[in-house]
Amino acid sequence: MVECSVGTFFLKANSKTVPSTLNNPMGSMSTFRLSAVTALLLCTGGLLSAPVRAGTSLDLETLRGQVVYLDFWASWCAPCRQSFPWMRTVQAVYVRQGLTVIAVNLDHDRAEAERFLQKYHPDFAVQFDPRGALAERFRVAGMPTSVLIDRHGVERFRHIGFRAVDQASYEQELRELLAEQ
Length: 181
Hints:
Glutaredoxin; globular; two-stranded antiparallel ribbon; alpha+beta; disordered N terminus
């Protein structure tokens, strides 16, 4: 079990702390500590329950059969300010076809994340991961990082960064996964 400031992650594995890096907003590398998690999500049928913004639990295992757009973000991330409105739009357009958008915040200070959320009003699930367990599992190398997972729990596409000019290709990837059974 890994304690975090916003709740408890229930894991079917032991955890330890290891050094890791992510790009900070100024482009240089900053080192901080992440929780190593041997439990796997979706791709291998692992189970992780974690708090979401509403205070309820999110069980990613229950999303089998859905296409998942898993987005890692931080309040200081400039491209995230563009991606949040786009994620709201695609969630609204494709939810009936089986799309689930989940945004995973990596801020260490929850108040900064909450200020961002008050400005962008997501209508999709938001999970807080201040220790970076999910970020490590999904090998997050920059902000934002988006992982598209098909209905069978297989990672199919990955994007580091978000550019408005690429929105059509992101949406095409979503449509491709949604069309598969």
